[in-house]
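Why Tc1-like transposase DDE domain-containing protein? Reviewers of the renewal asked for a concrete example.
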Amino acid sequence: MTRECSNAVQIQKSLKVNDDIEVSASTVCRALKRNGLAARVKRKKPLLSKKHCEKRLNFAKRYKDWTVSDWNKVVWSDESKFQIFGSDDHQYCWKCLKDPLQDAHVKLTVKFGGGSIFVWGCFTSSGVGYLVRIEGGLDAELYCKILEEDLMGTLHYYDLDTNDIIFQQDNDPKHTATRTKQWFEDNEIEVLSWPPQSPDLNPIEHLWNDIDRCLRALDIEIRGKDMLWEQISNVWNETALEACSKLIETMPERINDVIKAKGGHTTTLLIEDQYYLKKASDHNHAVEASRAGYDRILIFTTAENLKQLKISPFWIMDRIFKIIPTIFKQLYTIHGCIGNENLCIMPLVYVLMFSKSEECYRRMFQDLIEYSEEQNIDLQPQFILTDFEKAAINTIQAELFQNM
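Here is what the prediction returned.
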């Protein structure tokens, strides 16, 4: 039944329809837990068929012996879409009920999300290349024009010879069209044979993520597509050479991850995450790192802290925004009660989060539960006190904690 049903509500309905058994979803949750199952958030990943996995695995095996020096020859490329007002996070304010609305009481929105723009870009081991704003659709003819002007312009800018580079692109139809193939042949440029459904292998995805992060962190309001393009260009052109180098240095690890997964899904951490992991391990803190979509999550705690959290009669959640690294949105803390006679409230878990989305909170709680289970610690709080953060409340009330 569990293969047909993915959550307690579906199992409840299946029992009623197929077996005429009426039970509550809570009863199903308790039964699942007694049998060693736990609620988990489904991760968003590209659809991988058996054929996709085979091609990804073959690609990884073919390049498993490549060093960073080999990968430095590759010019990485991709297209991406950026949207105005991309965040749906709730914002709150204080006002008297009888007072009229002021500017500070309103979150401005634009119909249909304010529009979006489509861009093409590439980067090399020498730095980022040209960035192109694409008006309308992108077909093989326009793509070849971009290659002619902007790819070749990038190579000329960095004094790179076409015989010394390998060009990477995904398998989009415009990339593999006859006209496009002829262009590469005419210009004597080798194209890396890329496996399908493999954004986890392309380091440029992290550059797109960094642009999105910087746009959200801006103190100015982006009005219109032209202003959006201007801000994207500024962030792209300010990308440091070190960032490009570090991304390329992750390629051997990405290849190994695909091999370990037998061509299946992988989880590739961001460069900043790896830095924080190293710093945290130097101080003997247990750290879990993951990504919800493009949202970074870093959890700092210890096994001893989790044991205290387990026996605490209640949890207290709180958020801090000002004293955190700029690549994150907030520092989320989980406090517990410590001591027997002289009780005191202490922070036992620290979580750096890139956003306040419900998906991020779910990912955070799921990782915390998984790490606790590895330490043979069963976290099942009975009471949780939190502020009025809707995404956090919705997550807490979900199936992650059945006994609360």
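The chain has three domains: 1-37, 50-260, 271-396. This is the kind of structural detail the renewal will allow us to pursue systematically.
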